[in-house]
Design brief:
- The complex is a heterodimer.
- By secondary structure, chain A is mainly α.
- Chain A contains twelve helices and no strands.
- In chain A, α5 crosses α9, α6 packs antiparallel against α7 and α7 packs antiparallel against α8.
- Chain A is globular, with a radius of gyration of 23 Å.
- The N terminus of chain A is likely disordered.
- Chain B is of the alpha+beta class.
- Chain B is built from three helices and three strands, in the order βααββα.
- In chain B, a hairpin with a 2-residue loop joins β2 and β3.
- Chain B is elongated, with a radius of gyration of 19 Å.
- The relative contact order of chain B is 0.14.
- Classes of the chains: A mainly alpha, B alpha+beta.
- At the A-B interface, α1, α3 and α4 of A face α1, α2 and β3 of B.
């Protein structure tokens, strides 16, 4: 095509990333717009434009664009996964503070500096991610969450030897990063309701996990720590699912996304040697939430409270 | 983006320029973001492809609002106008009342 010749070579290469059918329909148009937008751009501005176009092309190629069902599922999953990550982090933070603050008071200055540095690097990105998501800034939230999971991985690598623990960490970190990165950013709910949900999930997760681990009865503790403690994270997700599935017009793909948000932890718990318990707990709680939602919708229909379809 | 297409059909680059102008320079759409949004608006039936033309040796596809898109924009405009009127009314009332007085 003659028009293609006026498009810079980098632009043409990026257009080549699009699926053939889409490229046939929109390729020239996108190439022309890209050429005009990038005229005179250099450095980071040009790089951002290229990355944005490549991201659109790859999303379409992978079937996870905002028009695809998979994209809508991921958009439902990503903010909840981020909230769960931040909630778990806050719970860990409370327990580390309880256990290590007395130790630090007797440590040498060098140890205190190193300990504080690890502490800050491990927790600040999660808190930043939560704050950004709570204020509707998804792209910075996403970047902070990815940094947080990367640092999780580094610390896990430093602390753990290769085994169940590391494999579980890898599964959780990889799953979380994938959910947050692959979700179409334009489809993530950054409206007030979505922002409140993120905060509510993070706070509920932090409080429930902290509460479970704080149970003082010594003879109950091992059983609860080994089994029920992990399931509390799924309880928070199941509760959110019931709320969404009981709505007048539930977005079913978004609900599948909410359930998907808990999968990184399911993988971690399963790899940690509690596979059967984790899978049963997840299935009962998440399946139960879908069942409750279904019953609520059935009752709505029976009572005739379902609003008429708009003309 | 619907506002950018409200008065006339536009091609991709013109939409980017229009959104920049409407937002007083605060929102600069990137190419990938623009077509992500257009894909969704096309799928929702709010926007349609109006036509194709070659300008300056480059093929340009123009996009326009559908009737459904116009209705949605009209409804959203009405909702925002009511919110603005209510905010102005309350701000006007607040100036007349002493500080800390309850409604």
């Amino acid at each position: 095509m003659n028009e293609q010749n006026t498009v810079p070579q980098a632009g043409r290469r990026l257009i080549g990333l699009y699926p053939a059918r889409y490229r046939e329909l929109y390729g020239e148009d996108i190439a022309a717009t890209f050429a005009e937008v990038t005229e005179g751009l250099t450095g980071r501005a040009l790089l951002r434009e290229r990355l944005d176009l490549a991201s659109h092309a790859l999303r379409l190629r992978l079937g996870i664009a905002s028009t695809d069902p998979a994209g809508r599922i991921l958009a439902g999953a990503a903010p909840i996964a981020l909230a769960l990550g931040a909630g778990v982090c806050v719970s860990d933070l409370l327990w580390i503070m309880r256990d290590f603050v007395p130790v630090f008071t007797h440590a040498r200055p060098g140890q205190v500096v190193r300990g504080t540095l690890v502490f800050v690097l491990a927790f600040i990105p999660w808190i930043t991610a939560l704050l950004c998501a709570a204020t509707g800034r998804w792209r910075p939230a996403r970047a902070a969450a990815v940094l947080a999971v990367a640092l999780d991985l580094v610390f896990s690598g430093l602390i753990l030897t290769v085994g169940y623990g590391t494999l579980g960490e890898l599964c959780r970190v990889g799953g979380l990063a994938a959910l947050v990165l692959l979700a179409p950013p334009d489809l993530v709910d950054t409206a007030r309701r979505g922002r409140r949900t993120v905060v509510a999930v993070a706070v509920t997760t932090a409080l429930t996990l902290t509460w479970v681990w704080a149970i003082p009865i010594a003879e109950w503790r091992p059983y609860i720590v080994a089994s029920l403690a992990d399931l509390w994270l799924f309880v928070a997700v199941a509760a959110l699912l019931v709320v969404h599935l009981s709505a007048r017009r539930p977005d079913r793909l978004r609900c599948v996304g909410i359930a998907l948000a808990a999968v990184p932890w399911l993988l971690e718990y399963s790899a940690g040697g509690n596979a059967e318990q984790a899978v049963v707990g997840f299935t009962v709680l998440i399946g139960g939430a879908f069942a409750v939602g279904g019953v609520v919708q059935l009752i709505r229909r029976m009572l005739g409270t379902e609003p008429a379809e708009p003309a | 983006m619907l506002t950018a297409l409200a008065d006339a059909p536009r091609h991709g680059y013109a939409i980017i320029q229009e959104v920049l102008a409407i937002s007083e320079g605060r929102t600069r759409l990137r190419t990938g973001t623009l077509y992500t949004a257009l894909d969704r608006l096309l799928q929702q039936g709010l926007v349609r492809v109006e036509g194709e033309e070659v300008v300056g040796g480059r093929l340009r596809r123009t996009f326009a609002l559908t009737e459904q898109g116009k209705d949605l924009l009209t409804e959203e405009t009405r909702r925002l106008r009511l919110a603005v009127l209510e905010a102005e009314r309350r701000l006007g009332g607040a100036r007349l009342r002493p500080s800390g007085a309850s409604a």
